[in-house]
Amino acid sequence: MSATEATDDIDLELEAEPPATELPTGHPKLREVKDALREIFDPEIPVNIYELGLIYKIDIDVENNVAIRMTLTAPACPVAGEMPGQVKEALEAIEGVGNVEVELVWDPPWNPGLMAETAKLQLGMF
């Protein structure tokens, strides 16, 4: 890999990070957790829930228990009852992950400013 390709990969990773998501620092399971969240898509918007900015906080403790604080694009979202279960199931499938708790919150309300740059590009918001 050339230096330019490495820089491009780093830039792309930064663009795929939502600006307001609280993350644990340096936890070895963090990448797997984020990758699992990137496999779950909002049914009305063709963007994964992580880059869409629906994940407000990821906590992973020393025993690999995971706690997620998330929201949906709107309280009347038709998947409000299903999405937390999908998140829990996806994270429980990661080898070595302990208990998974998913908290659905409405404050602060989601807005497009919470999306990663990649999500904005996918939706043509530039």
Explain what the structure shows.
It is a single chain. With 126 residues, this protein is of the alpha+beta class. The protein has a single domain (3-122), classed as Fe-S cluster assembly (FSCA) (GMP Synthetase, Chain A, domain 3), CATH 3.30.300.130. The protein has helices spanning 3-15, 30-37, 83-92, 117-122; strands at 55-60, 66-70, 100-104. Strands 1-2-3 form a 3-stranded mixed beta sheet, covered by helices on one side. The protein is globular and about 40 Å long.
Whole-number average pLDDT? 88
Number of strands: 3
Radius of gyration: 15 Å
Secondary-structure-derived class? alpha+beta
Short description:
The chain is an alpha+beta fold and 126 residues long.
Q: Would you spell out the secondary-structure blueprint of this structure?
A:
Layout lengths: L2 H13 L14 H8 L17 E6 L5 E5 L12 H10 L7 E5 L12 H6 L4
Parallel strand pairs: 2-3
Antiparallel strand pairs: 1-2
Core attributes:
4 helices; disordered N terminus; GMP Synthetase, Chain A, domain 3; 13% strand; alpha+beta; 3-stranded mixed β-sheet; 126 residues; 3 strands; globular
